[in-house]
């Protein structure tokens, strides 16, 4: 009765799960794209990079500054004039005020401002590729977790089938014992096997539940939400190595980021070289000033007017730092070239190894599919023989365990084939559903 109660509770749990409805892999990906925190954070980084692409941030626009100052003083003053007269005043007040607007505009800095503006645009591209990489990683994690649930759920169904078979065996053993064709030991052995299957089911149900929690976490939604998944793991067995290699060189986000880094290194060389040219800056402004003095030749004064001018400066000698900076910038550019070659080799290596694993897993999936069909047929034949008493309970248990193991290997092979496909598509930068 205790075992039946456990089974009844598990059936209620399954029915509750079904009530939540089916979650397709497309829906899981869509929810993750909308809610995942890593994607949101990466998108915010891109928004910052987009905000930074301005002429003002590159130094192309003038700076306008408003100025205001006021000072007051109270002093005891004594003055001796040129004719010998002396004047003195206690608590003499002196006030001054100045207000104005100044404008400064660098109109030439050796084209460094243009290099900085192009660097800002490259940083925006880098943010786009970083976001793409984050999206690819998240989508791959969601799909792999989803299909792992499918695999483990199918194994759970296989265990349920094994439990039903064990119940049938127990019923048959009890009938045979009641008519004297089997010993009490056989009944007890079958009961132990049934308890073992039910224990396996509890552990497997726990695995499925934890995987669902992980998927809910990737989708950034309530962790306790239950759902059903699709029944089969569908994988693409038509991938071609040459096509994958060609697409990776065009769409792999790591290669794209490295290419952006090289372009930024080229722009940095130009920006550093700008230090050899003069810097020309225009200045202008409008000022109003007033002052009052209790003692002196001028008791009050005020002035207002426009000022303007131009300044030019050039670096004549800075301790050879300009030359050092240029050499370092060129070395960084050489390093960027080397990084591109290195990343290209890494991508080709990853595709080669992943494609080899992909082909192996496809072969294993086909093989285990055949093995699962044979194991299922063998179990049916063995069950009929056990019912008529031509084989022992131990022999039947072996066939039953072989069936579970074959189903487990088949589900695992299909999952590995799917994960290999996902790995290849993530490398080339294009995961389609």
From TrEMBL:
Localization in the cell: Cell outer membrane
Assigned keywords, A-Z: Cell outer membrane, Membrane, Signal, Transmembrane, Transmembrane beta strand, Transport
Region feature (Disordered): 69-91
Family: Belongs to the outer membrane factor (OMF) (TC 1.B.17) family.
SUPFAM superfamilies: Outer membrane efflux proteins (OEP)
Name of the protein in question: TolC family protein
Organism encoding this protein: Sphingobacterium tenebrionis
Signal peptide: 1-19
């Amino acid at each position: 009765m205790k075992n039946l109660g456990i089974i009844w509770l598990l059936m209620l749990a399954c029915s509750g799960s079904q009530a939540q409805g089916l979650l397709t892999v497309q829906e899981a990906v869509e929810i993750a794209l909308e809610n995942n925190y890593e994607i949101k954070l990466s998108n915010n980084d891109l928004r910052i990079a987009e905000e930074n692409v301005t002429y003002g941030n590159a130094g192309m626009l003038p700076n306008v500054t408003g100025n205001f100052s006021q000072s007051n003083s109270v002093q005891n003053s004594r003055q001796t004039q040129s004719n010998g007269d002396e004047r003195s005043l206690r608590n003499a007040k002196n006030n001054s005020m100045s207000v104005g607007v100044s404008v400064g505009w660098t109109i030439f800095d050796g084209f460094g401002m243009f290099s900085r503006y192009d660097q800002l645009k490259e940083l925006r591209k880098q943010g786009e590729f970083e976001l793409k990489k984050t999206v690819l990683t998240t989508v791959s994690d969601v799909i792999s977790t989803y299909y792992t649930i499918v695999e483990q759920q199918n194994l759970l169904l296989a265990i349920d089938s094994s439990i039903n078979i064990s119940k049938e065996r127990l019923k048959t053993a009890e009938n045979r014992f009641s008519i004297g064709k089997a010993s009490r030991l056989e009944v007890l052995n079958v009961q132990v096997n049934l308890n073992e299957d039910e224990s396996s089911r509890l552990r497997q149900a726990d695995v499925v539940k934890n995987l669902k929690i992980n998927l809910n976490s990737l989708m950034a939604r309530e962790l306790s939400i239950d759902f059903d998944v699709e029944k089969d793991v569908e994988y693409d067995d038509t991938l071609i190595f040459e096509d994958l290699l060609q697409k990776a060189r065009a769409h792999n986000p790591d290669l794209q980021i490295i290419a952006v880094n090289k372009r930024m290194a080229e722009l940095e060389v130009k920006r550093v070289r700008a230090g050899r040219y003069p810097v020309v800056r225009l200045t202008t402004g409008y000022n109003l000033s007033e002052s009052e003095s209790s003692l002196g030749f001028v008791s009050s004064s005020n002035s207002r007017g426009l000022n303007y001018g131009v300044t030019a400066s050039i670096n004549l000698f800075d301790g050879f730092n300009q030359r050092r900076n240029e050499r370092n910038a060129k070395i960084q550019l050489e390093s960027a070239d080397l990084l591109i070659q290195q990343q290209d080799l890494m991508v080709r290596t990853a595709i080669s190894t992943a494609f080899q694993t992909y082909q192996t897993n496809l072969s294993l999936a086909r093989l285990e599919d055949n093995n699962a069909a044979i194991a299922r047929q063998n179990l049916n034949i063995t069950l009929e023989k056990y019912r008529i008493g031509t084989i022992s309970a131990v022999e039947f248990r072996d066939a039953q365990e072989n069936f579970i193991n074959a189903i487990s290997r088949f589900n695992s092979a299909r999952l590995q084939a799917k994960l290999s496909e996902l790995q290849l598509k993530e490398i080339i930068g294009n995961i389609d559903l």
